[in-house]
Specification:
Blueprint: E1 3-7, H1 11-22, E2 26-30, H2 33-42, E3 44-48, E4 53-55, E5 59-61, E6 70-73, E7 89-92, H3 99-107, E8 111-117, E9 120-124, E10 127-130, E11 136-140, H4 149-158, E12 164-167, H5 171-192, H6 196-201, H7 203-222, H8 231-240, H9 249-255, H10 266-276, H11 281-297
Parallel strand pairs: 1-2, 1-6, 2-5, 3-10, 6-7, 7-8, 11-12
Antiparallel strand pairs: 3-4, 8-11, 9-10
Helix pairs in contact: 5-7, 5-8, 5-9, 5-11, 7-8, 7-10, 10-11
């Protein structure tokens, strides 16, 4: 049994923490507001494509205390600074590419960089509903060099029903794989409020999607990330396999007037491009377009 802290119990943290609790691990959930109240009073309920299960009682707190063998850092990137909690190993699961290094700078060499693949939501406090028929966590060392013993130990902890743990030689590569895809998917589904099938089926927006991925590739290479020459082609092939009706969570948050991760995705590429002297016009167009649309509707 492993003592696990889920820092940020939204849909992602709630689901992965619930899977670990179901396996018998000692899981503490950190949440806030109505979600915290619901977890404390009614427990956790998970429904959807990955199966239904529930707990009448869970250990849910507003602020963590004690020692933890594994911390799953599941908050949004814009809440990261107030959510860094030390543990024997801290696995960052934020979108974007900078969060693991910010946490490493604050907490030291306890950090593994990770990304997730799951589509889930909170239809009500304390209730996670999973839409996707997959739920993976891909992670590894931030310095590359292969799969370390501690990565293997974390993999064994996460190898439970409902979670597919995928280890990588270099976490930077997998972070940029997801970053480039999300700059296209999150950026364009938010800007145009159109699903993936329409975006990739329209030659103009498909070309824009590919240009965004290509700009991400250029920035990553300039930062010393060892991506393969076929990176862009493989990302576009992956994008073509996404559900044609899929909308990003950022597009849904935008439509609901919630905080969005624009600065984590296209905004970050715009800033990095400026620092490196690399032109990223399509990321700029998406970034400025979404900012302008938000001002009009605010």
């Amino acid at each position: 049994m492993t003592r696990v802290l889920v820092m940020g119990t939204g849909a992602v943290g709630g689901y992965f923490g619930g899977c670990l609790l179901r396996r018998g691990h000692d899981v503490t959930f950190v949440a806030r507001g109505p979600n915290l109240s619901a977890l404390q009073s009614d427990g956790l309920r998970v429904t959807g494509a990955m199966g239904d299960f529930s707990f009448d009682q869970v250990d849910a707190v507003g602020a963590p205390s004690g020692d933890f063998e594994l911390v799953l850092l599941c908050v949004k990137a814009y809440d990261l600074n107030s959510a860094m909690v030390a543990g024997d190993v801290v696995l960052t699961l934020q979108n974007g590419v900078d969060a693991p290094f910010a946490v490493q700078e604050a907490l030291g060499d306890v950090v593994l960089g990770g990304s997730t693949g799951i589509v889930a939501d909170l239809p009500e406090p304390g209730h996670v509903h999973v839409v996707s028929d997959y739920a993976w966590i891909r992670f590894g060392e931030l310095s590359g060099g292969g799969v370390s013993p501690r990565v293997e130990r974390v993999r064994s902890r996460l190898d439970v029903d409902g979670i597919e743990p995928l280890v990588v030689d270099d976490a930077r590569i997998s972070l940029w794989e997801k970053m480039s895809l999300m700059c296209g998917m999150a950026g364009l589904t938010t800007l145009y409020q159109r699903p993936m099938g329409e975006l990739l089926g329209d030659p103009s927006t498909r070309d824009q999607f590919e240009a965004i991925v290509r700009e991400c590739f250029a920035v990553a290479m300039a930062r010393g990330v060892p991506l393969r020459d076929d990176f862009v082609a493989k990302r576009m092939h992956y994008a073509a396999g996404i559900d044609p009706m899929a909308m990003s969570s950022m597009s849904r948050d935008f439509a609901r007037g919630r905080n969005i991760e624009l600065e984590t995705f296209n905004g970050a590429i715009v800033r990095m491009g400026a620092e490196l002297g690399i032109d990223v016009p399509q990321n700029v167009a998406v970034y400025e377009g979404i900012k302008g649309a938000r001002k009009r509707f605010s």
